Structures are given as structure tokens and as C-alpha cells.
Amino acid sequence: MAATMASHISDYVLKQDDSKAADIARDLYKRDVTLVQVVESLGQFLTSPVVEQRRRGTQLMASILQKLPSDFLVEKEVGHVTAFLVSKLSDHHSIQPLALHGLAAATGYSAFSDGDESRRVCSEIFKEVQNQSLSQADRRATYTIFLNLLTSHLPDLQALGDTFVCGYVQQMDGEKDPRNLILAFRCSTIICQHFSLGPMEEDMFEVNSCYFPIDFVPPPNDPHGITRGDLSETLCGVMSATPAFAQYCYPLLMEKLTSDVTSAKLDSLKTLCACLPIYGTRHLQEYLGSLTTQVMREVRAGSPEDVVEASLHALTAIAAQVSQVPQQLGEFMAETGANLVRQVESENLAARMSSTRILCTMASASPLVCHAVASRLVPVVCSVCQKLSQLEQHTAFFTEVSSLLQHIADAQSSKTALDWSLLQDFRGKLQEVCDRLLASKDSQLQVLGMRGLCALSAWGAVFTADEISCTAEKMMTRALTADTDDLREEGVKALSKVARQQAQLCDGIISHLSQVLQNNLALYDACESRKMFDNSAALLAAVAVDDVTGVKVCQALLRLLQAFQTGYEECMVPVSNSLASVLVRGHLPPQFLVSTALSGVLGFLWSGCRSWSADKQHVHVTVLSTLVRGLRCLVLLLDSQASQSVVGMICSVVIKGNNSGGDHADASPLKATSPWQLSRLVQLLLAVIPRLDVKKDDVWEQLVSQLPDLALQTEDTHTHQQACRCLAALVNRMPAGEWLDSTVRGLCTTLTPTLTKRPHADLDLQHRTLNLLTWLVKAVVVRGHKLSSELTGQLTGFLSDQRLGPKAAEGFCMILAPFPEVLCAEVNANITPTFQQRFLIQNLAHLLDGFQNAQSEVKENYLLAVAGMLTNVPQQVLVAELPKLMPVLVSSLKGSNSSLHVQALATLTAGIRNMPELMTYYLSDILPDCLMLATQAANMRVRILAVQCVGAMIHLPSKNLQPHKTQVVNKLKAAIDDRKRLVRKEAAQARNVWCLL
Amino acid sequence: MTSLENANPLVFQRSKERAILPEEEDDNVIDKIDSREVFDMIRGINDPEHPLTLEELNVLEESKVTVNDDDNSVHIFFTPTIPHCSMATLIGLAIRVKLLRVLPARFKVDVELTPGSHTSDVAINKQLADKERVAAALENAHLLNVVNQCLGGRAK
């Protein structure tokens, strides 16, 4: 072994064979040779008088170190190697970089010893290495050494003190490469945080801040992936690392704020926000005035919205710092605050708006600032509001006012004790403002009014309990008659806040809302009653904020379920929505949950729904799916004991039926002969499968044997789909092994004869069978089971069948498509990572072959399968596979199958964004087809996608687009006069961008 | 930089995206072009002076757009922010060009200043109504460039 190694080494050093390093590292890793042996054999080269041999020897040492895992060597070995490499730093100039690379690897070893070792490395680097004269990769090694030592051996370096800081500053000075700067900034941050910089303070700041603001545009196709954002974030970390930088940083930031470049402004503001909490009050007083003025100027100057946002954040951060010293806050408010308040009063709308915005945002800084702002601003706001007549024109102003009211509410509920009595006089006026907003016709203002009232209801220090209850009632009454979704949502938020803060009001609210529900139940067909009913159901769910309210709300909703009779179908949609959201919140006590809530829901589904009229089947689907979603989230949320009882109860209903008696005492959802209202309950299984115990017991046996029969025999489409999904979910969760294999094989054996039967069996039955088979394939593909390729092969076989081909092709799309309620991570499914990618790669070649050899009438099936898979794979995979698929995609645009067009166009549009070069190459092939589809396709979805595709092409290089411009602009004339508005909208956009070319 | 004519204009709220109705998703129903649709086409045009859209400056309002799909006619009133605005012709031209590009050619388009909103409204209306002058204006490369900037979304 040692002999082989010696030959490896001499090959590496003398014959320049780089691959030998990997061989030696592998032998070392397998413990076939020891490090000592390697060093011994290497010794003659390391001490050789020939520079080149010493260089290769050192290089071999370094690359072995880089290849071994970081916990492989023991402390002594690392120590020796390090000592050797350190000594090589002072060797020939061509050897030094290799020693640095070796040290970069050695310092990363976990066995690198504490103590003198790191100090020696650093001192030697400071003495021998002139970083600026090295190449980028070598400089990177230096930074890596520092970063490794700073993160793992900080105390050792701290002992070096000023020497280290000084040495580091010299090494970092003049760095230009972004890849290195990212490391250097990280080192600087650690140094600033943990070293006393002393006399080096200014140098340290200078050497880093000279890069501020970052001005870096990554080259196209940059493999290193460093962005301007990364750099500016790390640099911001350096600048905010120590309060010592305050005196240098403030002037710099103020200077950069005056820049014309938006990114420079943004960086300055963000850095300011990050620095203020670290710097504290240090040097703030000196710069406070000019800094505030300058940042406020940004808010007023009509800068872009992101700059304004950042400026407001900065002002808030400044206010938060100022408020640390009460006297300073007083002065600040007396000067800056008073100025702003004066402008709020002024007639100049722009000045009023920006000042209000600044003050209201500042109020969020701290309770103290909020108090100071409120005491000055509230009186002014009240008088301004009274004067305003056309409220719609001042939406932005009222948005700020309502946020101010919320900040005051937050400050009142904080721990800081403050005297809020000065707001007493304005209670009435503020309420009046909110009332006016609520009463206005503009939906946005209504929302703001609701928000304002909600904030006022939390002003415990100002309003009495009666007043608050009055406000809550006002909000509830208004929310009940809400016409828009926005207002309803705001009402829901407000009421749930009230319920949380004012527990004593909950009873009254719940009973009032339940009364409204009862009153409007019978009149549901009338528009007004329907609105009241829907709103009160949503509001009722919002009030369920803890155990007590949860139970009461749940009871009220269950009463409605019990009262169900034919004719009330639609009412059950909002009720089930609310019930689901109450269940999901997990407030209900387990005892109540099982004995009352669950049995109520199951009773409703079992017997209540029996009279559900057949022409309202789609409503039943919505109600059932909503309840199942709620139950599923609940089951996943509960602890194991409670969930087991829920799971057991649901399983027994599905398998054995409800024992409570009635006409269908012997009926079961698993029997295909049961009425649809019953058989659809099989969907309930999807709620429990995620927590079902995986073991071979009666429940599993029964489900696995009965679900296929149900799926195949039932006439009801929904039942069929749900049965397929349940079976797939079960198969997916089965433990790997004999049981699973035999189950899957057994199912296949029963399914195949129906599909291959000649003369043909009933087409509906065949479609059902194929769908079940597809779900089965999905179940095994998702878990990456060995049978998946065999089953997929069967599915591929049906593509050449004229009757079943199109369905089988859709199956390929479905196998990869995500479903939120089955076979996904949220429901504890057994998922192999990247299964989509594997499936695509395993089947692509086969499908393309099939496409080439197929007869013309079934060719489209293959294309459809390929396109279907492509729409569901991650972007990166698509990019990798697209080049081979382009010819296929181009030809799929020429056919007449609209679902194929949809998928091909979606893939092409994604391709244009990700692979412009490839698409440019095919531009003249796809453009005419896209234009033809955009104007002539019968299906509007195809037309929309085709127009979008044409519009997306604008991102391709314009020199390639120019020749087609006239043609596109002319052809799109027909699309902008399409009969559908959605097509016209996209066409107008596309034509406009092409005209601008 | 020359000083702006109206340095501090009042900014208005943008209206929300149009909600999509079920019948718009039904391929068999014919959607007529209505005033909101035409308003949507032009509301995003940039003001030549400010980084704001004509809608945000209230130069265009949905209520001042009249559309008759059957008679193939579109009429638009626009309101400059100040009565002596020298950009009024340019704004009118931008609206015209945008509609030329995105509105079916069967429509007859009239773009006029809201009566009383400009000191020389008669003259400007005449210019905007003169097809040949509009066509000639678009031959002017510099002018076309300015118009394209107004139509091309926010400056990059």
C-alpha cells in the first residue's frame, strides 16, 4: 500500500498528475495509509532544493487537506501540518499561495487546537503575506483563514489585540473582488464586535466604509451568485457592528443621502436604521437636527415609494433612540414635532399629507414617542377632520389617522405608565370621525372607519367600559350589513380583537349573532338576508378566541346544522366555513370536541344531509370539502390521544356506518349501492389518513379491499374521485415490504383486464379504472417505490390506445400535479424529494420514442403527456430538459388539441423567461404559430396564453425581434378586437410593448 | 434641470384592478368594450413631468370616458393639472397614440380637454382632432421618443 502511495506522490509531484491527490485522500480516508506515511514519502520533495518540487509537494499537502472531511484529523496531526504550512509562508513566492490554501483548509478542521496555534498563523501571515499582490483565489484563502479563526478561535486572537486589528486592516486594504469582500466584511463585523479597536477605529471604518454605498452589478450568467443585496447587507453589518463608528458613520450617511442614485439613498437609510439601535445616543445629539431634516426631505420630495418607506423607518428609528432620554425627547418634539404639527394644520395638501405620515409612523417608535406625538397631533387631527368635506379625496390622510389611533392603542396597552387623560376631551370627536368614515359610500373609507373604531375600542385608559361596549356593538352592527369583502374582513378582524381584549362582551356578541343567523335562515333567498347571514356566520367564527367562546360559537353553529332541511342547502356553505375555521383554531376542549362537535358534524353529514336535493349536489361538495378540510387540520393539530379518538370515530362511521339507527342502519359509505349523500362521505377518510396508525389491522384491510370496488362501481363522479384519492393516500402510507407489494400488484391484476378487454367494455367503467390506476401510480411514484417504473410502463402503454389515450395522457399531468389535501407533505404523506424530476427523467426518453413511432392519430397523446409533465416540474429541471424538447413543443403548437396548446404555451412562456438564448433560436418557428393561436384558437384560454407568450417574447434580444415587429403588430390587430375582454387586455399589453420595441 | 411647471401636484388614489366577472370567463359570451376598459388602457400612461400616472394626477377619470361599442365611438375628456399647462398637447397626443395601438381600428376616437380646464383649449382640441397633424407629429423621431417614454411604463 505504502509503495502505491509513494508512486502516487511522485506521479503528482514529478509528472504533474493532479488526479493523484484524490487517490491519496481516498486512501487516507479509508485508513489504508496514515498521514505520517504520506508526509514521510512526501518529505524528499518538501525539502528538495528544486523550487518546483517543493511547490508541488506543498500543493499536494494543501489539496489533500481540502479533500478530507473537517473532523478527520486529530489535533496533533493538524498541529504538525499547520506548523509546516506556516513555515512555508516564508518560502519562495510561488509556494506562499499554496501554503495559504492549505492553511485555509487546516484552520477549518475541528481539531485545530486552541491557544498559540492561531496566533502563530496570524502573525506569520501579517509578517510574510502581502495580500494585495496575490491573485483573487489566493486572497480568498487569506480571508478564509481569518474567518475560520475568528469564528472558532476568537479568544486566542483577542489576545493579539491591536496587532491583529492593524494586521487585518493592512491585509484587507484595497480589496476589489466581490467574492472576497463578502468574506472580508464578515471578518470585519466579528472584529468590530469583539475587539477593542482603540487607535485603529478610524482606519477600520475607512477600510470598510470606502465601499459604501455598494455599486456592483453582477455580470450576466454569473456563476458565483453574489448580488448587490448580499454585499450591501454584509457591509451594513460592519457599519453597525460597534458604537465606536458613530462619529464617522453619521456624516458619511448624510453625505450619501444627498446622492441622486436611488440605491445609494436606500442603502444609507437602511444602514441608518441598523446603526441607530447599536450606536444608541452616542454622537446622535450632534447630528440629530441635520439628519432628521435630511431624511424628512426625502419623504417630502416625491421620491420613489421605497425610499419614502425607508425614510419613514429611519425616522422611527431616530425617534426611538431619542426617546431613551426623556429630556432629549422633549426638545426633539418641541422643535421637530411642533414644526410637523404646524404643517398638518396648513392648507398645503402635500405638506399636510407628508407631515401626518411622518408623525403617525413615528408614533410606532415607542410608547413614549407615541404619547408625545398623540398629545400634539390628536387635537390638530380632530380640527382638520372637522373642516374636511369631500372625504373620498383624503383616503391617504385617514389611513394615517387610523394607524395613529392603533399606535395609541398599542401604547396604552404597553407596560409604560403614561398619563393619557389629555385625550379625554377628544373622545367624542374621534368617534365622530370614525362614524363619518363608516357612513361614507367609499369602501376604502368604510374599512378605515372600522379600523379606527377597532383601535378606539382598545383605548382602555381613555374610554369607559360602557363606551367600549357601545363601540363594539356599533362595529358589529355595521359589519353585519357589510357589502364588500374588504369591510367584512376588517369587521372580522375588529371583532376578534374585541373578543380577545374585552372577554366580558363575548356572550352578548355571540347571542346576538346567533339570533341574527336564526332570523335570517328561512329568508336566505332574499339578497339582504343572505348578506346578513353570511356576515354573521363569518363574524361568529371570529369571536371564537379561546376555550369558552370556542365552545359557545361551536354550539351555535351546530344548532344550525341540526336545523338543516331541504331548501336550506346554500345556508350551509357559510356555516360550514365558520365551523371549519373554529375547528382549525384548536381552542375546543377534547371532551367537547369528540362528544359534541364531532358527533354533531357527523350526524349532520350522515342523517341531516340525507334529504339534500339532487340538483344541489355541487353545494354538497363545497360543504363536505370545507368540513373535511377543517377536520383534517384539526386532526393534525391534536395530540395523539385526542386525535386517536377523533380518527376512530370517523373511521367507524365510514366503515361501519352510523349506529344511531334510522332508515339506512345497514348502509355504509363504502358500498357503491348507497345513495350519493352517503357514499360521498368516503371523503372523510382524507381527514384521518394523515394520523391513521400504520399497521396491518382490520381497518386497513377493510379499506384497501373495499375502496377499489367503490371507486370502480359507483356512478357518482365525486365519490369515485374521493375513493381513488383515499386509496392512493393509504397505499402511499403503507410500510414498505411484502404487504405493500402484494397490495399494489393485486390491485393492478384486478384493474388491467378491464382496460385491455376486447371487445371493449363500458367506456365509463374503463375511464374509472384508468383513473384509479393513475392514482395508484401517483401513490407509488411520490414515495419513490420500486414498482413505480413498472406501473408507469403500463400507463404509457395506454397512450397508444385510441379510446383511452387522452385520459392516460392527462394522467401524466396529474401524477406530478400538487394536490393540497392528498399526497403532499402537509398530510404526512410519504414523499421522496425530487420525485417530479425523477419521474420526468425516467419517462421522457420513452415518451419521445413513443411519439416518434406512434401512428398519427395517437401522436398527440404522447405530446400531451410530455407537456403535462413539464408544467409541473420545478423551473430548474425544466431549464435542463427544455433544449431536447423544443422540437416537440414546436410541433405541438401545430396540432388542434386545445389542452395540448395550453400546456405547450405555458411551458414556452416559462422557457422565454428562463432560457432566452434557446428561445431566440426557435423564435421564427414559434412566433407564427403563437400569433395564429392568439387570433384563431376557439378556446379563450389558449388565446390568452398565446398572447401572453407573444408578449413575453419582448424580453428576448431586440435585434432578433426587430424583423418580426411589423408582422406581430399587424396580426395582433385582430386580438385587440377579440370578443373576450380578458384576451383583449393581454393583447393590448402585448401590442403596446411590441410597438415600443 | 429646468424647473417644473407644476412642482407639487396633488396625488390621487389609483383605482383597483377591475374585478373579473364569471361571464367574462365564459367563452360564449361576447364582452362589449366599455368605458372602464378604455379607461384601463390609458390610465397607466405616465405624466411627462412626474413619475406618476395620468390617473394618479386625476388628468383622466373614468367618468369622462364615453364609449359606444355599437357605434364604434370613443370620447375622452382629459383635465390638465394646471390651466396653462404646456404639456397638454403632449398628454393628448400620448392618449391618442396609446389608443391607436391598443384599441381596435374600427373606433373613431375623440380626445378633448375638459371644457374650461385650459386657457387655450380650443386650439389644442383642434390640433388633437387633426389626423394629419397627429400623423406628422409621429414622424418626428424626437417627439415619438417622448411619447414612447410616456407609454413605456416607469423609467428604468
From TrEMBL, chain A:
<dbReference type="Pfam" id="PF14500">
    <property type="entry name" value="MMS19_N"/>
</dbReference>
<dbReference type="InterPro" id="IPR029240">
    <property type="entry name" value="MMS19_N"/>
</dbReference>
<feature type="domain" description="MMS19 C-terminal">
    <location>
        <begin position="614"/>
        <end position="953"/>
    </location>
</feature>
<dbReference type="GO" id="GO:0016226">
    <property type="term" value="P:iron-sulfur cluster assembly"/>
</dbReference>
<keyword id="KW-0227">DNA damage</keyword>
<dbReference type="InterPro" id="IPR016024">
    <property type="entry name" value="ARM-type_fold"/>
</dbReference>
<keyword id="KW-0234">DNA repair</keyword>
<keyword id="KW-0963">Cytoplasm</keyword>
<dbReference type="InterPro" id="IPR011989">
    <property type="entry name" value="ARM-like"/>
</dbReference>
<feature type="domain" description="MMS19 N-terminal">
    <location>
        <begin position="39"/>
        <end position="299"/>
    </location>
</feature>
<keyword id="KW-0677">Repeat</keyword>
<dbReference type="GO" id="GO:0051604">
    <property type="term" value="P:protein maturation"/>
</dbReference>
<dbReference type="GO" id="GO:0097361">
    <property type="term" value="C:cytosolic [4Fe-4S] assembly targeting complex"/>
</dbReference>
<dbReference type="InterPro" id="IPR024687">
    <property type="entry name" value="MMS19_C"/>
</dbReference>
<dbReference type="Pfam" id="PF12460">
    <property type="entry name" value="MMS19_C"/>
</dbReference>
<dbReference type="InterPro" id="IPR039920">
    <property type="entry name" value="MMS19"/>
</dbReference>
<protein>
    <recommendedName>
        <fullName>MMS19 nucleotide excision repair protein</fullName>
    </recommendedName>
</protein>
<comment type="subunit">
    <text>Component of the CIA complex.</text>
</comment>
<comment type="function">
    <text>Key component of the cytosolic iron-sulfur protein assembly (CIA) complex, a multiprotein complex that mediates the incorporation of iron-sulfur cluster into apoproteins specifically involved in DNA metabolism and genomic integrity. In the CIA complex, MMS19 acts as an adapter between early-acting CIA components and a subset of cellular target iron-sulfur proteins.</text>
</comment>
<dbReference type="GO" id="GO:0005634">
    <property type="term" value="C:nucleus"/>
</dbReference>
<keyword id="KW-0206">Cytoskeleton</keyword>
<dbReference type="GO" id="GO:0005819">
    <property type="term" value="C:spindle"/>
</dbReference>
Automatic annotation (TrEMBL), chain B:
<dbReference type="InterPro" id="IPR002744">
    <property type="entry name" value="MIP18-like"/>
</dbReference>
<protein>
    <recommendedName>
        <fullName>MIP18 family-like domain-containing protein</fullName>
    </recommendedName>
</protein>
<comment type="similarity">
    <text>Belongs to the MIP18 family.</text>
</comment>
<dbReference type="GO" id="GO:0007059">
    <property type="term" value="P:chromosome segregation"/>
</dbReference>
<dbReference type="GO" id="GO:0097361">
    <property type="term" value="C:cytosolic [4Fe-4S] assembly targeting complex"/>
</dbReference>
<keyword id="KW-0159">Chromosome partition</keyword>
<feature type="domain" description="MIP18 family-like">
    <location>
        <begin position="37"/>
        <end position="112"/>
    </location>
</feature>
<dbReference type="InterPro" id="IPR034904">
    <property type="entry name" value="FSCA_dom_sf"/>
</dbReference>
<dbReference type="Pfam" id="PF01883">
    <property type="entry name" value="FeS_assembly_P"/>
</dbReference>
<dbReference type="InterPro" id="IPR039796">
    <property type="entry name" value="MIP18"/>
</dbReference>
<dbReference type="GO" id="GO:0051604">
    <property type="term" value="P:protein maturation"/>
</dbReference>
